[in-house]
Specification:
Structural class: mainly beta
Number of strands: 35
Radius of gyration: 51 Å
Low-confidence stretches: 29-42
Helix content: under 10%
Shape: rod-shaped
Number of helices: 1
Length: 420
């Protein structure tokens, strides 16, 4: 029997073997490729969990460096936790913390960086030093390696950061942010907040008044009073009252209502007129803090004066009564004196009776016949609250007194000083 194979048969056998090998190779790749990809691929990343620096939400303006106590405020944190392996992605780079505008870091207090493994068994990101000396505006750490591959996750925490405001006003606020070449998943340089700093008003130092314009006696008006610190910031926490006083006359009320968020709009009334009038507010709580308004003018209440006569004509030598009536435009009763005049000559005065309108009288019997009719006016001189005014003139006629002759007889007549 001839067992030798023809060339064609050999080729068919070779092709079948080659096809089988190819099928085995394809099956092997299909089974092991996902395993190989999983082994060599990078882990999935998630944004880090940030716990912002705390302790900086209420930093007093009194601690500012320019004209305050320059006292430092200590912060806690911030901390950054990886939520996936190698969220601190860089093998090297700078990690820089930046102070927000209006605040400075304490350059005399070193800041510590602490790296802690929170999951897995591998290594964590590494830095060239665990401490850094801040500048006024930044704190720089140098990352020298990232964590090992696998399931390891780590936390990076900062401690020892101290801050203070640069000025007492305007009040500053802003976020601590990151810059530098180190890449951290979920942190955007210059944007992501690592803690918020907020400057707030300082302690009560004074009271200020909104500008007060010209006012009128006895007419109520509103004045706005603001509790302020040394730097003119509103002391929003002041909810007390103030005692009110004035340098001219009296003010009502003498105690304000309660402030709300450091501000009080108070209705007041002044009793006296004048220029250079001021109002002073003093803390009713006993702190001694005070404040005075701008100088302003308080106008008197205008008045109208009229005069009348008990009778015209009057007979020389007989009494005539002049009555002056003073009527204020508003407010209470006028006080003071009315001067009665005959032309430019004063003929007497009378005191107002305290009523509203006020009345003053003058009884007189010495107005002469000569010059009749007489021009009589009443002039009110005003008081601390009421402006003076002059009446219109009235005419007062005076007639001679009739002569009555009695007891003359022929026997006692005198002619040329010789009796007959």
């Amino acid at each position: 029997m001839n067992l030798s194979l023809t060339t064609k048969e050999k080729r068919l056998i070779y092709q079948k073997k080659y096809s089988t090998v190819r099928l085995i190779m394809k099956a092997t790749c299909f089974l092991f490729f996902p395993v190989l990809m999983a082994f060599f691929s990078q882990p999935a990343h998630a944004s880090v969990l940030i716990t912002g620096a705390s302790g900086g939400s209420s930093i007093s303006a009194d601690t500012n460096i320019t004209n305050g106590t320059a006292t430092w405020t200590s912060l806690s944190g911030p901390t950054i936790q990886e939520q996936a392996n190698r969220d601190f992605s860089s093998t090297s780079g700078t990690f820089i913390l930046n102070a927000p505008s209006g605040f400075s870091f304490n350059t005399a207090n070193n800041v510590t960086l602490t790296v802690t493994r929170i999951a897995g068994t591998g290594t964590c990101p590494t830095f060239s030093s665990s401490t850094a000396t801040p500048t006024a505006t930044s704190i720089t750490f140098n990352q020298t390696g990232r964590g090992s591959f696998g399931s390891t996750r780590c936390q990076v925490a900062f401690s020892g950061i101290q801050v203070r405001p640069n000025a007492g006003s305007p009040l500053a606020t802003g976020n601590i942010t990151k810059s530098g070449t180190s890449v951290v998943v979920g942190i955007t340089n210059g944007t992501t907040s690592l803690g918020t700093l907020t400057e707030v008003n300082g302690a009560l130092n004074k009271f200020s008044f909104a500008a007060i314009g010209t006012q009128s006696v006895g007419v109520s008006f509103n004045t706005t009073i603001t509790a302020q610190d040394t730097y003119n910031n509103t002391v929003s926490g002041f909810v007390g009252t103030v005692n009110l006083s004035t340098n001219t006359g009296t003010i009502s009320p003498t105690v304000s209502g309660a402030f709300a968020s450091g501000i009080r709009t108070q209705s007041v009334t002044l009793s006296s007129s004048g220029a250079g009038v001021t109002i002073t507010a003093t803390d009713a709580g006993g702190s001694g803090k005070t404040g005075t308004s701008n100088s302003f003018t308080v106008n008197s209440i205008s008045t109208t004066t009229t005069v009348s006569s008990s009778g015209s004509p009057s007979v020389y030598g007989n009494s005539v009564t002049f009555t002056a009536t003073v009527t204020p435009a508003s407010g209470g009763a006028p006080t003071g004196t009315v001067t009665f005049k005959d032309g430019a000559t004063t003929i007497g005065t009378g005191a107002l009776n305290g009523a509203n309108p006020g009345v003053a009288t003058l009884n007189i019997s010495t107005i002469k016949v000569s010059g009749s009719p007489h021009s009589i006016t009443a002039v009110y001189g005003g008081d601390g609250s009421h402006a003076g005014s002059t009446s219109s003139a009235i005419s007062q006629n005076v007639t001679p007194k009739a002569l009555t002759v009695s007891g003359i007889t022929a026997s006692n007549k005198v002619y040329d000083r010789f009796a007959t």
